[in-house]
Design brief:
The structure holds 2 protein chains of 2 kinds.
Chain A: E1 9-20, E2 23-30, E3 41-46, E4 50-54, E5 66-71, H1 75-81, E6 88-95, E7 108-114, H2 118-130, E8 137-144, H3 153-156, E9 166-172, E10 182-183, E11 200-205, H4 208-221, E12 228-231, E13 247-248, E14 251-252, H5 253-256, E15 259-261, H6 262-265
Parallel strand pairs in A: 7-8, 7-11, 8-9, 9-10, 11-12
Antiparallel strand pairs in A: 1-2, 1-6, 2-5, 3-4, 3-6, 12-15, 13-14
Chain B: E1 3-6, H1 9-19, E2 21-28, E3 31-36, H2 57-60, E4 64-70, E5 82-87, H3 89-102, H4 110-117, E6 119-124, E7 150-155, E8 158-163, H5 166-174, E9 180-181, H6 184-204, H7 214-220, H8 226-231, H9 239-243, E10 250-256, E11 261-267, H10 288-307, H11 317-321, H12 328-341
Parallel strand pairs in B: 2-5, 5-6, 6-7
Antiparallel strand pairs in B: 1-8, 1-9, 2-3, 4-11, 7-8, 10-11
Classes of the chains: A alpha/beta, B alpha/beta.
Amino acid sequence: MSQNPYQPINGEIVDIIDESPTIKTFVVVPEEKFKFETGQFVELTLPGEGEAPFTPSSPPGQTEKMEITIMEAGRVTALLHQCKKGQKVGIRGPFGNGYPIDDFVGKEIYIVGGGVGLAPIRSLFLTLVDRIKDFKSVVCRFGARTPDDFIYKNTLFGSWQKIAGVNMKLTVDEANGQWKDNVGVVTTILAPDDVKIKNAVVVVCGPPIMMKFTTLKLLEFGFVAKDIYLSMEKNMSCGIGKCGHCMIGKYYVCKDGPVFTYKQIKQYPDIWD
Amino acid sequence: MEAVFISKLKPLLDAVAEQMALYVPKKSGEYYVYSKYDPSANKSVEFNNIRTCTTVKEFIFAVCELAAVYPEPTGPEDIKPFAVFGLKDCDLRSIEILDKVFTEEEFQDVLYVKRRENMFIISSDCFDPSESCFCNIFDGRPYAQSGFDLNVSQVRAGFIIEAGSDKGKDFIEKHSQLFTEADQSLLDERDKNRAQTQKQLEQNNAELKFDATIKEIMENGQDSAVFDVEAEECVECQACTRICPTCHCFYLYDTRQKDYFTKMKMWDSCMRVGYAEVAGGANPHKILGDRIKHRLMHKFVYFLDRYGIDMCVGCGRCIETCAGGIDQRTILKKLSEEFKSKGKTKSKVAK
């Protein structure tokens, strides 16, 4: 590769959607065609300020614009949250390995998501439902802190639940007046018979603590480590496996991940920190 | 390979400097640092008997550099040919390690590749290994084995020059008037010097014997208390990572100029507390002992798994620079003892 891996592609924010009190989705149009696989991530640059890693929440098939859902968490994301439509941005990537969708064919796909972890899952979910007949079923178990904290509310509470082949349950840690569904952390809506474990793969994405307890629960149900796909959140910076900030053991999350099977990384003690 | 002889260094260095910028070791206090060679200066260049204090990494992996300009990209900085004199075998092997990282086919670091292509390497034999040198543990030698264009061996009457590459051969051919043939007695003297220095290194490190490979003792020592114990002496100055010729972590940051923006690339250190911290606050390496462990695991396990070589050349710079007196060799020895006491059956002496 002769191109400079640190050079961003220019892009523009053409729309901003408020998802929750702390989360917004930015619709970005890159100046050049931008291809990625679901689960891969990009480094989004706010010119002159810095960049941060995000997995697009739009499906790869949608090529003219990319959606990136961002929680206000640190310096760059706080500045991004102040941006208006028309803001120029830079995009580097895509980086790493996404979900191996073709390996999922014929299986039940059990997706467990929490909070802003639904962002990469939305990309995956839309990719899966686009070819839903290829899979036995798509079983979703999503959680958020409160009903307001759910992102993609319109589709999550509406059209997504009606897709044939999709089974969805939601939960919140704390309910409000209108909430009729389950109350409790996401592990409280996981059941051993949600899917047939022998012919299923699980995709987990959410805050580290949620991923940890979900993984432990799944192992208790009888899932094997190689069938549990985790989307790891580390301090990815260069995106090309060199700068070192995102290492988990010998792996560079930016290059070897961000999607790992639990089998790949379980030997390392600090994966949930 | 054919060797030639030259009685003084200056004509050789002048010939190099005629073609390109040349950097030579200069004594600063008790250490050598690099400075640009000035052919007009009357002072003769000192032959550094030991590796320099600062490392060759600075020539190819800049402390801070422009990684990209946007929104309108500009081509990479123009790198002119340059030469570095006085590199030792440990330095050459550190280049080999950095090459693995920055010239990987998949993602090449453009500036690094350009610098490497334009670098003329003049190595030299090591005569006076420091107490902290332990290159022999990693198959290092007090003389260049590979990875040089020219190598200089000091003998009583002058210097033996050998080419290690086509570039080096061309240089010797082009400047044949400077050299005479190096006869066998000179080569014998060189070999004797080399053997003597090698012996000294081995004597210095005679105590440094492990009961398994370093990888095995590191992997076995994951739960060892030694990292937290050593951390008590660490002042978190990061000098070990800065002065290490193989450490290559970096930090990307953006700047705003008058009518463009830049992405800058600057050395970073895995010993820094916020190094692995994410925006949400999670930090897998918030404990200093864990950072020390991660650094050594990277050097002796992770890098080896990935690239097939250790990420340490045993140059000992980290030992000399450490304000807290932390010595990697002590850590490895302790881990080796712990390995032994765990009663592992698979036991062999590490080279």
